[in-house]
Specification:
Elements: H1 3-7, H2 16-26, E1 34-35, H3 36-42, H4 51-60, E2 64-66, E3 70-73, H5 75-80, H6 85-94, H7 98-110, E4 112-114, H8 115-126, H9 132-148, E5 152-155, E6 162-165, H10 167-175, H11 177-180, E7 207-212, E8 216-221, H12 227-262
Antiparallel strand pairs: 1-3, 2-3, 4-6, 5-6, 7-8
Amino acid sequence: MTKEEVNTPLPYHADIKILEKILTDLKTSGKDGIKLETLWANIGAMNNKHRSYTLNLGKFLGLVDGDSSKVWLTDFGIALRYMNQDEKNQKLARKLFGKYLTMFKWIYDNHEMRSNELKAEFIGTWGSTMSSSVLDRTITTFLNYCNWIGIISYQGRGNQAKAIITDFGKRMLDSNPEEMTPPTTDTPTSKGKPKKESPLSKDAIYPIIIQTNDRGDFEYDIQSESDWAVIDSVITAMKERWKKSMNSNQNYSNRIKEEDSRKPT
């Protein structure tokens, strides 16, 4: 992942239904686009608090572009007009990049993940870069989008909402391993490699650091009681990885014992 992709702000507080309306309305606008006020009036979003957040999602995905007064479809957004729904989903799935691709890979590797587990993994990988409420909305926007294009099934609500990889999502990653597998980051944190700079400032309120060999260091500044839910999620995710590691080691040990028992004495 490039430094630009790491530092690109992720969309949050977006509404997929509004995104659909934006894309539908812009189909007939041409490359010159339309005025923002006209767009919001056309889709009935003049007073919708999610509209600007959703437009940011469209720009992040490379579907729309615009300036302070007008908005228009990108070449990629225009190309989707001529595809059926399955073709659109495939193109959009293959368009995942940066942190979105990395987060999708986490779900793929685990088969299913709860919202809190994704939040903990996000902080453990990229640090505490936003408030807890914004991170919640960032994760929710990501999950709603992936559910919209069919690569996951998103069930439940709140921190216990669950993302489950779909057969389509598996096929997309399995059939395009080079295209959809995120590259190694520029700031590795694994044992024996350069350690990334700590995101915790000297004036942190209640900093906490958890060190592991498999995922590097998890660093977080606890500023409110709700932040302890993040720590609980981190511990739960670590416990699950530990269980998988122990089961894998046990299976390996059992195979060795079985092979030794078959050797002639």
